[in-house]
Amino acid sequence: MRPAFSGGPMKQVKRVARPLAPLNLHVGAQAVWEKRLVRIEALSSASQIYVRCIGTGDTACVSLQDLSVPRPLNSRGPIRAATEPEADAKAVEWCTQLKQLEAKQCAAEDVARQMHVSVKTVMRRLSNFRDNPLPGAQVKGVPGPPRGSKRLTPAQEAIVAHVIDQDYLRPERRTIRAVVRRIEQECRAAKVKPPEMRAVRARIRAREPLQVAKARLGPHEAEAKQAPSIRGVETSRALELVQIDHALIDLILVTPGEGRQVIGRPWITLAIDVHTRCILGYYLGFEYPNQTAVGLCLEHACLPKGSWLKRLEVDVDYPMCGRMECVAWDNGKTFQALGVQAQCERYGIARRTRPPYKPHFGAYIERYIGTLMGKVHMLPGTTFSNSKQRGDYPSERRAVMTLREFERWVAYAIAGEYHHSPHRGLNGLTPMQAWTKAWAGPRGECQLPPLISDPREFMLGFLPAKMRKVTREGLALHGLRYWDPALAPLINSQQLYRVHYHQGDLSRVYLYVDGHHVDIPLLDRTQPPFSFYELQEARRAMRAEGRRAQDETALFSALDKQRQIEDIAAATSKKARRKQALRPQASLPAKTAVDFSRPVTPIDTNWEDEL
C-alpha cells in the first residue's frame, strides 16, 4: 500500500548502479576480451587462459587482467544509494537465507515464512541469487523504468532522430517546440502516435553536447563554449609570456572645458603578464587600433612609468616594467604588421599568435578586460555591454568624464586597486605581491627586470614604415616633402632607407640610418601637427572637388579649411568633436618657414667685445 502524502517536500531518490556478479573463471564460462564475448576453453595459469571467440571461432591466449565480466542483457534497474541501513541489512539476510536454500538446508516455504513473502518471490530471488550472489543484487530496486531506457516504438524513435538531425542540429538554431511540431506532423503522416515533448528533450540531451554545439553554433564557438579547458597557460617566471589585446571601452567621454560635449567611446590596448597577472601597460585613445597603438602600448609596458605617472598627477606605485620574453596576441592586422614582427625579432621578443576564432587562448587578457568593463559600467555615461543591458539609460546625457580624467581613473583602477586585490589564480596573492615575489632573489634580495636600453629606438621601431630614397628634394612620403640638413650626405646614394612615421602625427618622420632614427620634419615648418587620418580626409575632399590631391600647398590649405569647419561644427556635431579629439597636440610651437636655398649666416662670436 502506497503511503499517504504528508505534505512535506518530496525526497529525491539517489540511484546507483547495481553491482555486477563476480567473474568465476572455469572451463566453459563466458567472459569479455577486447570487447568480444569469449568462452574459456582451457586454464593453465593466470597468465595463460585459452579462450574462443563466440561467433567467429577465433582462439587466443590471454591473461587474467585482460578479461572482464559480461553485463547481462536483462540486467535489473538501479538501486537506492547506501542511505538506508535497513535495506542493506535486509539484503544481507536474503543472501543468508538463499544460500541455505541453494545448499538444500531448508525449503522455499521456510524462507517465505521467515521473510514474510510468497514462495513465488523466494524463487524469483533465488534465480537472481544464482546469477549474482552479491548482497547488492538483492537490494530492492527503485520503482519505475531504469534510467536511459526507451519506451517509444522503433517507428517513433526513427522519426524523432530524423527530425532532430534535419531541424534541430542546424545553424538556424530552431527551438525544441518547433522541432516537436515537426515531429507531430511527421508522425501524423506516418500514422504513428506522436511522442511528448519531454521524450524529445530527453533524446536531444542524450546527444553528445560538443557535436550539438558544433552543429548549432559552429565549430569555433562550440570549441570555446563546450570543449574542455582543463589546463591554462603554464609559466614559471615573470615576463615569460605577455598577452595583448584591444577593446572598445563601454563609456562615452566628453570634451574638456565648460561645454563638456559628447565625443564618443575610446579604445584601449592592454598588456598583461600571465605569470603575475600584472597589467604591464596600456594605451588609451580615440583612434581605431592601429600599429602605432601597439607600439605605444609596448613602450608603456616595457619602460618605467615614473614620468608618465607624474604627467597624469597620479600618486600610485606602478613598478611593473621590463622586456618580455614572448608576446601573445590574436591575428589582427595591427599585430601581424611586418614592422611589429621585425621589431620584436630585433629585441629578442618571441611571438605567439592565437588560433583564429578561439578567444579562450587569450583567456587572461580577455578576463581582465571583462573585469575592467564591469568597473566601467558603474561610471556615469556607460553604454553597458549591449542595448538590452543599457535599457533606457541615457548614456550621452549622463557622460561627464574627459579622456584625461578617464586615463587617470584607469591608472588608479589598475595600479591602485587591481594590483592590490587578492587573485584566485595566484592562490590568494595580489598581483603586486606576485610581482615582488617573482623578482626576489634566492636570499631575499631584490632583483630588477631586464630594461630597454634605448626607449626611443625601441618605440620608433614599432611604427609603420616605408622604404624611400633620399633625393635633392629630401624625402617624399604620403605625397609630402620632408627635409633636414642631415639628409645632405645621403642625396643620390641610390639606397633605400626605412622611414618610420607616427600615424597620429605626420609633421615629422623618422629616418633609420646607421642604427639610429633621425627626426626629419616637414619642409614647410609652419604646419601644425596633423594625423594620417586628417590627410586622407583632405585628399578625399580634394578629389571630390576635382582638384589634384598631390599639390602640397593645396593639401595644407584643405587641412586648414577642414579644421575650421570642424571647429564651427563642434558645437552641434559629435563627429566633428571626435575629429577634434583625434588631432595631435603640438609639443613645440610652430616654426617659421626656412629657405634652404640661401646660405647659412655664421653666428657672430665677438659679442663679448660689446660688453
UniProtKB/TrEMBL annotation:
Q: InterPro entries given for it? A: Integrase_cat-core, RNaseH-like_sf, RNaseH_sf, Transposase-like_Mu_C
Region Disordered: what ranges? 130-151
Record-linked Gene3D superfamilies: Ribonuclease H-like superfamily/Ribonuclease H
Residue ranges of every copy of the Integrase catalytic domain listed in the record: 224-439
| Designated name of the protein | DDE-type integrase/transposase/recombinase
